[in-house]
Amino acid sequence: MNSSxxxxxxxxxxxxxxxxxxxxxxxxDSIDFFEVAPENWIGLGGSLGRRFAALxxxxxxxxxxxxxxxxxxxxxxETLLRDIRAFMERHHCPLYSEHLSxxxxxxHLYDLMPLPFTExxxxxxxxxxxxxxxxxxxxxxxxxxxxxxxxxxxxxxLEFIRAVIEEADxxxxxxxxxxxxxxxxxxxxxxxxxxxxxGERIVYCHVAGHYVEAExxxxxxxxxxxxxxxxxxxxxxxxxxxxxxxxxxxxxNIPPLAELLDEVAVIRRIQASHxxxxxxxxxxx
Length: 285
Known about the structure:
By secondary structure, this protein is an alpha/beta fold. 38% of the residues lie in helices and 17% in strands. β7, α5 (157-168) and β8 form a beta-alpha-beta unit.
């Protein structure tokens, strides 16, 4: 199994079909890589398949899955994993990440549900991650998720994440917006949480916007601009862990490409402020 970190750098953007027309006119130099949900592209032929392949030849494409349901009581979807492996090999995708959650139980739930923070869940989930990595022939990255309930809590969220990542021997997909949302919703210190993560496992980062439902309730929507405190957490992550490839997530309310590039430019400016002379921006620490 390939256990090395993939060679990614710089700033990325989620590749959405709404953006294809503009991107096909020429990919801006500020975009170093793209990200897609593999479920939306696997097996897709015709014009859309050809358009995707053409863009994938110009920039690396990382995969961020939606439906593996790694903590589900249902059997692991090994067919999906084999399809993902073939897709990665065909398009030379350097990384696959998924959510540390579940989204199925005798059928799809159409949401990312929180796992119980228990020792039993650690061992169960880590075992499924190891099996997934065996099928893919490489380490995958698990993203800590935003959540709105804490079922069967025996340990803290941070302890749970660290335990799963260590036992599974997988990589960590950092999401600074998820940290901010959870910190507000569950009343913990975002900077302390960030500092407790296993930095040596971080392979890349997400930054995104959210919706303010109430002063103490934020909803992780990926449908708005990134706010200053989240940019601040990204800055703190670079200061603590070093530069890492960072992707702007925007899943709906998608504005014109120029507006998204303004936020990509913020990522690049923060990266530049941490860059040491002679080092390439965005290399994982």
